[in-house]
Design brief:
64% helix, F-box-like_dom_sf, single chain, F-box domain-containing protein, F-box_dom, 0% strand, 174 residues, mainly alpha
């Protein structure tokens, strides 16, 4: 078999990988779920050195609105002041739905239980973009996630076309 034949066989293999049951994703989610419900260790660090400590809660919320989901969690894990700022639940749900709708497993996780859970979930969300895309430079992608991303994109295109047709039909009937 030629080198191109091996490459083509390798890439076509990714098309038949199950996009719903993804062992690599389940392993990463297990790390998060094992930390759920654990009592957080008492914080021995002073809040006085935290630059976010002097910000009003409203301004902290504005910062959260500007960040992607993974960065929100990273910030909450890194800063006790930001960790203690309660994120509006609807903001979090909107971020997940707009940024990673195809990663429904994360939508059900209460990532704001402890800084450890926030840190683990943040690492997953920040890494998931890279691991779900096939590029020539990226050989670290997960077949199932790449397949799910591809299928989700096609479904979104079909949905858009369908809604355009339905709107066109309802406009002509009016």
């Amino acid at each position: 078999m030629t080198r191109d034949g091996i490459t083509n066989a390798y890439h076509s293999q990714s098309l038949v990988v199950n996009p719903v049951q993804i062992p690599q994703l389940e392993a990463e989610l297990d790390v998060i779920t094992k930390t759920l419900g654990k009592m957080a260790a008492p914080n021995r660090h002073s809040q006085s050195g935290d630059i976010f400590n002097n910000l009003p809660v409203e301004l902290r919320h504005e910062i959260f609105k500007l960040l992607p989901a993974g960065s929100i969690l990273a910030l909450k894990a890194a800063s006790l002041a930001m960790h203690s700022a309660i994120l509006p639940n609807d903001l979090w749900k909107r971020k997940l739905k707009s940024e990673i709708p195809r990663l429904w497993e994360v939508h059900d996780i209460d990532a704001f239980q402890s800084r450890e859970v926030e840190d683990n979930t943040s690492k997953l969300l920040l890494d998931i973009q890279k691991k779900s895309q096939y590029t020539c430079e990226n050989d670290d992608y997960i077949f199932g996630l790449a397949n799910r991303r591809r299928i989700w994109g096609v479904c979104e295109q079909i949905r858009t076309r369908y809604l355009e047709k339905v709107r066109g039909i309802s406009n002509t009937e009016s």
